[in-house]
Every structure is written in structure tokens, then in C-alpha cells.
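Archive entry: two folds, one per protein. Generate the first.
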Amino acid sequence: MGPRIGPVGEEPQIPGKDTKAMMSAEDTPGGKASPNPRDLRRSVFYSIKFFVLCHSLLQLAQLMISGYLKSSISTVEKRFGLSSQTSGLLAAFNEVGNTALIVFVSYFGSRVHRPRLIGYGAALVALAGLLMSLPHFISEPYRYDHASSVDMPQDFEASLCQPTTSVPAPTPAPSNSSCSSYTEAQHLAVVGIMFTAQTLLGVGAVPIQPFGISYIDDFAHNSNSPLYLGILFAVTMMGPGLAYGLGGLMLRLYVDIDRMPEGGISLTSKDPRWVGAWWLGFLVSAGAVALAAVPYFFFPREMPKEKHELRFRQRALAAAASSVSKGEDSPAEQNPGESQEKQDGLTQIAPDLTVIQFIKVFPRVLLRTLRHPIFLLVVLSQVCMSSTVAGMATFLPKFLERQFSVTASYANLLIGCLSIPSAIVGIVVGGILVKRFHLGPMRCGALCLLGALFCLLLSLPLFFMGCSTHEIAGITRQPGNLPGPDLFPACTEPCSCPLDDFNPVCDPRTHVEYLTPCQAGCTGRLVQEALDKSQVFYTNCSCVVGGGPVPAGACDSACSHLVLPFMLLVSLGAALASLTHTPSFILILRGVKKEDKTLAVGIQFMLLRVLAWMPSPVLHGSAIDTTCVHWAQSCGRRAVCRYYDHDLLRNRFVGLQFFFKMGSLACFALILVILRQQDKEEGTQVTVSTSGLQQQLLASGPGKKPEESRV
């Protein structure tokens, strides 16, 4: 959010003016007037530094709760029987409410009590977090084996091979016996609650960042504002990393830790039926957001303008005064005159407009901005890059689980410890390069092109880092079809095996996996107790050479050792992609009119949400669903996918990422072509000029950088 828009009839704030005399009763904490000006100095709620601290913590907690669903997406799929397309739509649904309201934030500016509105938004975010955890409490306890509906010991017995004479023949869809209108209604209610919570999460996040940034920019010293915003962004960027770290911790706990069955469970986190305590992370992050929201109800609507520049900043600026005077102005640092000039430019768009007038003027500004080729190409490149990030952030944990046989907890820890910090480093390095070398538009475009090119090249080895799906007895390569009894090996003919039971066992000698011990022909079960855990084995297996025993659980991938090299390449690619973040913003800020800059940035974020963050998770989820080779069935409908074609999954997931990176690279290449064309046009204009003017230009400006006015 840029400079604030003043309300009708309100006197604009003068940077050097002491505003304590203008404070009303509404401006004081709690709404009470403070007659003594010294009390204002003593109140911590009149300190912009304290506001920066509170806002950093709030945005950290808000991004943590927004990103937590992505860390537990595969767990939510297994718990409620969702396809990847549905879970991708769920992950993207928080952008719906956010996109619908974010444009009006540009209109409201400071017409409202910004701290209180931030507090109300944060309270709504916390409520949405509590609502996301509600499905756990209204659902029945999780049953990882549906073969029996009595107790745990009979669950294991029902998975064994039993003679067809003693057990009735299985029906084509045994799970339908437990289906009822109540069960289906409960499933729809659970899904509806989660979609509603995601929408409220997006709506509550609307005022937090824009109003907070504009509040800091209004009342901080003009020289301190960039430093405060830098601290704010640095702390905020740790939010997604904490979300994955929190997911890694919570998913180690069993989902029904609050209502464990008698005798406990025999699952481990490596079992494909394991479901972690996904709901607990929402409670923790919602509590953090609620605590961070409390101070905002005590901040005033306006506070005195910060008068003094930070001392260490004064010394740093004095030491760098000579170098700054020779180079171009930093995009983040502006003098008071420039800041006031930007505010005046913004008032040319919507200074005192009503909502109806703002809606009428917005399409004209949108069309005028989109007609600028540099702006349009930069936004398209960022759309491609954001689509890559959105798909990777949503489904990379699930991809690692399936491709390399790692637990959901370990996958989240890898992402939180490698990918997120690498992206942060890339953003910081990109900003340092722009600042240190005073990069103009041409060099910013070249830096973006190089970052996108090397990011694309690092994606090529990912196509070959993985293994094919191991053999699964009775599973065909036709997605969506349940295997019939005629597809099972002949050794299971004496058995009566439930068709939709899922209790996998693995033959370690042949590396063949069976859906249940019954399909392996096993008639006995043995539990081997150990100090830390117990291991379940199945014996007398007619389909296994030697009769077993075979351990319970899925077969491990033969490529588990490739997970770390894979993540290192992904993290390095994330750093190179993030390197383009700051230079691309510079291209936008230099490429539009001054009076359009604030709304241009708002339009940019709106387009990123509409074109990238909303459709990309759904697109990636749909691509993942097309690689499924065995679906679970629930009440006659297709539920969660149990097995994927690993080669197809890798090629389509990485290939979709590669496609978006190619699009970003093409956009940056076109930007460089346009900038060079503008250089040639400028050179032609100089050639047409008089020779005396040419000599004067060459003599007066030999060190002038031609990039400064190219856009």
C-alpha cells in the first residue's frame, strides 16, 4: 500500500508539524483524551517502533496460519477422502475473498481507523483458524482399517485370508454398507466448513498488510520508513517457514491424540494409512494471531510524526553521502519532497472520491496501465513465476512423500529448512544487487533474465531424479477402476478378501506390495515387541515365496537417497527465481506514471491472485490426479488416491513447473528486446539533434547512465 489517501475535509499531515495538539479522544488508547502531552510520549502505543514490532509479529502469525494448510494438504486428503484437485481448490480458496476486497483498500486509505480495522481483520483470521479445526471435532474418530466396525483386534483379523465358506462373499462395494444419508451429509458439511474458513481467512487478511504499511509510512520519519518496512518484510518472510516447521511437528502426532482408542494404535508415521494431528496446528497458529491482534485496539488513529532519524542510520548515510550523490536515488529511500510529490500524484486519481466514483475511475486506470508493454510483460512473468511457487508450495510435500517414500513430517521439515530460507536469501540478494550497483531498467531486466534462465536449467535434472512405481499386486494402469477378484493372483482364490480394504504389506524379497495381508494369502499375524515400538508381521502367506513372514506397511522407494539432492536443486532454483523479485518491481515502478504507481502495484497483486495463486493449485492438483492408478472408494464415489504412477507423476509435476518457468523466461527476454528498442530510438533522436547540442550533451554528461530513462 502506498501513501494514504486523506478523507474529505481532513487537513493533510505536515511532516514537520507536531500533531499532538490535534489529537482527539478517539486518537488515544481506549478512546480517552489525554490532556498532558507528556503522557503521549510515555504511552508505548504512540511509538511507531512498537507498532512495527506488533505488525511484524502479526504478519508472521498470519502467514503462518495461511501457509499451514499447504504443509498438511496430503493429510487432509487422507482424512476426509479428497482428491488433489479438490484440495488444491481448497488451498486456493482463501484468495477468493482476498481478491474481491483488496482493490477497495486502495480507496479507503486512511479514511478509517486503520489499527482497529487491522485488529478486526486479525480476529477474523483467528476465527477462521478455529473454524478450520472444527471438522476434527464433529467427525467420527479416524478408522484406518474399515474392514471391521467393532474393535482393533478384529480389524487385524478381518484383513487375513479366511475361507470363503466361513465368511459371506464380499459385495462389489462393501463400503456402501456403512454409507447413509447422514454420512454423506456429514462429509459435505465438513468440506463446506473448510471452504468457508478459507474464505474468511482471505477476507480477514485484506486490511492487515496494506493498512499496516501505509500506517508505518505515514508516521515514521521519512528516512526511517524504508528501514522499518525492511524489518517488517524480513520478519514476515519467516512465516511460511514456520508454517512448514509447525506442520512437521504436528504431523508426528496421531490425528486422534485427544481421543485415542483403548490399547493404542499399531501405526507408525511411515505407514501410508497414518494421519497426523493436522488440526492442532490451526489451533496453535490461531492462538498466535489472536494474541498478536490485541495491541491494535489500543493504537490511535493517528500518532505524532516521528521527528528523529535513527542515529546509526545518520552515520551510515553521512558515510555514503558522496556515493549516493553520484548514483541514482534508491527506490526505497525518498526525501520528504519526493514523498509529498508521490502523494500529490496519487491525489490526482482518487483524493476525495466516493466509492461509486472510485469504481468508475478504476477501469480507466487499469486499462491505461495494462497498455504499457513493460508493465504487462513484467506482470505476466510474475504470474508465471507465482504459478510455479503456488503449485510447489501446495503439493511439494505430497510429491516428496510419494516419490521418495518420506513421511509428511520429514517432507515439511525439508521445505521449511531448505526451500523457504533459500527464497528469502534470493530476495535479499536481489535487493542488495539493485542497491549496490544502482541498476537501471536495462540491467534489472538482464538480471531477471539470468535468474529465470538458471532457474530453468536447474529444473532439467529433476525429470530424472526418481524411480518407477514398484509392483503392486492386482493393480492395473487404468485410473479410477477398482481391481476385481479376477485380477488378483490365483493364490487368493480360497480367501474372501474385501475389495476396498487397505492394509498394505510388502514382500521384501521381490519388492511386491499387496493391498492387504488377505491378498498376499496370509493367514497368521505376529507382533514382535521392541523397546521403542512394535513391528507387525504376517505369516503363512500363500502368495509369497517361502510363506513369509512379510512386514506390515508399504514398500520403501528405491530412490529415497535422492530426496536431499532433489531438495537442494529445488532450493537453489527457488533462490534464483526469488532473485528476480526486486528487479521486476523496479521495472514496474520505473515504467508507469507517478500518479499510477500506487494503483499499479495494487493491480499487479490483484492480477497475481486471479491469474496465479487461485488457478495454479487447482491446475497442479488436476495434473496429479491424472497420474493416479488406484482410487479408494467411499459410498460409491471416488475418494483419495492410494497409488500413483511415479514416472508420470514426476514428469507432469516437474513438467508443469518447467512450462511456467519457460513463460517467465520468455517474458523477460521480450522486456530486454523492448528496452533495447527504446535505446535505439533514443540514439536516433540524439543523431537528429544539432551537432552543437550533441557536443554539449557529450561534454556535460559523460558519466550519465543511459538506463535511467529507458522505460
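Generate the second and append.
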Amino acid sequence: MRRTTVSRTHPRLLILKPRHTTRARASCRVGRRANMAASSSLLAVVPALLLLLLIAPAPAAAASPSKRATHQPPPFPARASPLHQRAASSSGRYAASAAAATDNGTAKPFTAHYFQQELDHFTFTPNASGLFSHKYLLNDTFWRRKPTAGPLFVYMGNEGDIEWFATNTGFMFDIAPEFGALLVFIEHRFYGESKPFGNDSYKSADTLGYLTSTQALADFAVLITSLKHNLSAVDAPVVVFGGSYGGMLASWFRLKYPHVAMGALASSAPILQFEDITPWSSFYDAVSQDFKSESLNCFSVIKAVWDVLDDRGSSDTGLLELSKTFRACKTVRFPSSLSNWLWTAFTYTAMVDYPTPANFMMNLPAYPVKEMCKIIDSFPAGADVVEKAFAAASLYYNYTGDQKCFQVEGGDDPHGLSGWGWQACTEMVMPMTVSNESMFPPSGFSYEEKSEGCFASYEVRPRMNWITTEYGGHKIDKVLKKFGSNIIFSNGMRDPWSRGGVLKNISSSIIALVTEKGAHHLDFRSATKDDPDWVVEQRRQEVEIIHGWIDQYNKYIAQM
């Protein structure tokens, strides 16, 4: 079985750490097999695609011997497994579970249900009609049933547990009373509890082959259509919502299934992060700019720390001392683990640089990038650069102060994000590099190396151009202006994923709402008294636009 290291994932999207320059490539190749032996499960964070959103507080990398090693998805043995199903109720394809409670004992704002979903929507092979239990959540507290059914607001599930995303999508709960809306959150196949082959879902390409964005969109279409029939709400308008990867799905769903959804709100959706549409260095350039805008000294300290870590970590004695500096629970085996630990903290903090305190991924204060830079700038002149960087990163990992030590190597995957490795190795190929202007070490990207790494992990090769073939992307303004409608693309420029998003209006009904200080789908978080005026205004515009869509739709239905 071929082995290689695990890829980083973000709150909704994989952060594809690029291939590195010549001085690291040779050691990367030599150390590839050793990498996996030292690796652990995915980090419990989401950049996607996170890929992000709060109604209430959310429920509470791999090491490598080579310098700054490139990560690859985990390997799986080739073996198919039987389909995983939950017993359906007398209503046929539906099953429900009792209302659950959060970790602190409060009732969750939704009930869980299960739909018997087809495995393969696009072929008629013997396995295609097999069924698996597809989880979705409902909140009908504010749903208006008479005289006409209120809209269905449907969240397109991301690469993780749907309850995590629902709990952190307060905007939908905030606006549901105004619209009389039924809230639906649909889990993405192969994530959370919606695993077609149960615990064997990630065993091989024979099972993982059913994990694609097109299958997921078809799942959503089938479930929404069936649910509307089951609720006797066939004519109720449907607006789909999604953030990060979920936002990509929401926009694509509107384009692919306009007869199912009459509008889409896609927040922080980098649908242009493919091929050569967006500059490859844009993501990490944006992260760097976030820090540089707060403090040039802060930027410079982070830029300097990588070489120091490499030098000190080149010996066992140095690694032991660094392990103490980083308060590692166990002695760190590879210097790249320390670099990854810092890299993750700085990248995700830039993504969730919210103007109010949040705990979507980690407990963080308002404007956490500013707070990190304050920590670095507070050190006296001549202080150790590693100690400065560690102290800043500790804000991300230990803002509450309750961590006695850090799992620098190892960790778990509480939100179930590990399926993204397969997606990034098949269709979600987002080239990323690091420029000389970045605060991260310069590095490149090679389609050939990407292909070889994916084949070593899964025995499949990426279809590099599939996303733009299936959904478009090139010259999107000209293409969508001719036939697309009713899509809001919202982005905040503090979010590094915004560079791959739609940042200008395409037509009178395909609108880009951009905020200069916004972060990763900030607009999807629940409203608070401390929200800046520009966030309040962004959400107001979104509500106003959606009202217009629904009013127009209802007039059309009435005329019919």
C-alpha cells in the first residue's frame, strides 16, 4: 500500500499547501514513504472550505522528515463495501430521529432526519440504485403554511458534519421569521453520518468514486424535490445557501437546477480558484497582506521564522529545544511539524478575522490578526523570533488559556473532513503557489507532481479541467450575463478565499456584495449587537434581494 502525507483542510475548503522549491523537493521525494509513517489524521479545522456563520457558539498534521513537506491525501486499500442504510419509516424514503441536545444541554435548533438516497444518479449499473441514509436537518418553527407555503431556505452541506455547519449558520435562523421560511440543512454525501458505505466509505476508489460534486448536487435536487412533495409544498420557492465550498455548490446548483432553486446566496465561494483564472499566489498573498496591514514588524517576524525553524530543527538537540519552546505534549520528530503548526494558525486566523469574538474553528477574540500582531510587537528588541511566532500562534490554539501542552504532531478530525483529500485529488484541483512577497516560504505548483501524489495515495489521477468544463469559470461575466440569474456572491476582502470569488456584478440579478473588512462568510454568522455597520448593511442588502426574488416568483405562480 502506497503511503504519503495528509493534506491540510480548511473550514470549508482544502488549503492546498503548494509544492516547494528546489532545495526541498529532493528531500520531499526521498522522505515520502516516511512521511505517512509520521502522519496523523486531518487537522480539526476548516479553511474550506471551511469552508462559515454563527447562531450560537459552535460545539466546543502530519509530520515529515523533509523541510516544509508537501502534503498528500491519505491512502486507502482497494475494497468495496455494502451500502450503509438507516431503517426508513412507514413514509417510505424518510426516517427521523428524536431532537437532540448540544454539549451544554440546550436543545438544538433543528431535528435530524434521514432520506433513502440513491448511490449513483448518473448510471444504471447494478450498484447505481442502491440506497444509503442521507442526513438532513429541519427547523419549521417559523414556516408559514397558509395561505401559501413559505419558502424553503436550503443550506448546501460542506465537507463535514452538517450539524456543525447548521449550528454556525445563524443568519438563516435570523431571517427565517421575516420570510416565514422552512430551514433545511442537507449533509454532503461521504461526510458526517451520510456515508454510503458506513465506516468503509473511504476504503478505496471503488467506494470513494461516488464522492463527487455532481453526485452531491443531484442528491440535493432529489431530496428537495421529494421533500416538497412530502410536505405538500410543491410550489414553494426554494433559495439555496452555502459558504465556502458550500457556497460553490449553491451557485452551481442554481445554474444546474434552476427548476429546483429560484435563487442562491453563495458566501465566500471561490468558484474561480481553478486553472489560470485566478493568480496562483493570490491566496497566500492575501493572508500575508492581512498581517502586513496590521504591522510590518509582525509580517517580517513571521517571514523570518521558517528558516530559523529549519536550521534549529536539523538536529535532535535542536528539535528537543524547539519542542520545549512550543510546549509540545510529546517531543516533536520533524521540524516540518512545527512549521505546519504555525502555518495553520496564521492562515486560519486570517480567514476568520472576524470583527467580533467567535469560536467557529477555535475560540478567538475580535480581529484576531490584529491581536496576534500586538503579541509579536510587544516583545522587546532582540527577542527570539521563534518565541515571538509561537506566542502569536498560541492565540489561535489557546486563547482560553486552558491548554497545558499542544499536540503539534497528531490530532483528530472531530468534524469529519477527511473526505476532502479525495475531492482535491479528483476534481477540486486549485493550484496554489507562494510568491516572494509572501510571509510564507516561496514555493511552486506542478500539475505533474500533483497527479503523481494523488496516484500514490488513491491510484487515481485528477481531472484538472473538469470543474471548469462542468460548471464554467472562464469569462464568467460574459457567460452568466447571457443566461444566469438570481445569485448573490458575497465576499470579504480580509478572507484569502475572496481572491477566487466573484467580486463584480455580472448582471442586474447576479450581484457581488463585497466588504473591505469582511472575513470568511462573515455574513452567515448570527447577528450580534457589536456587528459593524458594514456587516449589518451587507445582510440587509441580501435580505432585500431575496425578498425581490420571492416576490417575483410568487407573482409568476399566481399568474399561472
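Annotation attached to the second fold: DSSP finds 18 helices and eleven strands in the chain. Residues 451 and 461 are 5 Å apart (CA to CA).
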